[in-house]
């Protein structure tokens, strides 16, 4: 484990994307799964200007952009078996599928929800067979909507209707959905109602499908799987709390809660710096270790190690972002981290990488002009000018 912690602490900036003409917050990131090739080739980013941008994973060179969304984007995911297929969920009640090999701006497939659906979370399962999206609460209802995702690339721009919904297990906005990385029928969902639900969607109905309900006592902002064979579930909350449960203990007398931290900002001591927010978590399979990623409003990124005895700081990544970091993706094959933030920058971090200082200086100048335009964190600008 120490070796992995050293490796994470040694992450350095390897590449920066050049800033686009229309700067936007980078809200969600996914890295293509290395299906055909040895390493992943693409990075997809959903942006606050309602666009999806695709970059070369090695160089962070911009490849293409999809901006035909009428609503707000919520999430971006690559298919597991085909690294040129990317999905996005939208507040207009659709999940769209794009093929980045094609020169068209049109989605190759549209998965449509029901008329009142506003999707704010989604995922596709590990076998690329099922898509699930979570809705905002409408009147008294909130839904998990499911579609059959097979036959994506060969049916033109057909619209697919849902297979069905779950409607009983949450009573507020479903903020996060995460399929199990290995077992295609397992799904965990999190909501502003504080509940984290684990389902086996192979079961006939919603009641039977609901395997466990864990209560975070707060609005859920991030969820994930961890542990050997991914039998644990963890979540973060909008008030920077953290909960970690062992689903394998459900049928035993053992308590399922591994750790519950009401406010991670108070629980982690950081010399000469602070922790303002959590971004998410990453489970490092080789080390069987869960890490949290948090940060500061000036762009520092803190890597935090999780144990049943508590949380501890592994290291801080500095000098990359100049504003709040909103998204990241851990590239397991490359042992690399991709991050995006409110400074409109996309960064690739690798162990002991060296960035050429020329590009760094140029991009820093641009970043500050971006900050003036989007007026993020004026206080940090003032302090830099002194």
From TrEMBL:
Whereabouts are the WD repeats? 66-101, 167-209, 318-359
PROSITE patterns attached to this UniProt entry: WD_REPEATS_2
- Keyword Repeat assigned to the entry: answer is yes
Output the superkingdom of the source species.
Eukaryota
The record's keywords, sorted A to Z, are: Repeat, WD repeat
Claim: Ribosomal protein is one of the keywords in the record = no
Q: Which PANTHER family match?
A: WD REPEAT-CONTAINING PROTEIN 89 (PTHR22889:SF0)
- Name recorded for this polypeptide: WD repeat-containing protein 89
Organism whose genome encodes this protein: Phaethon lepturus
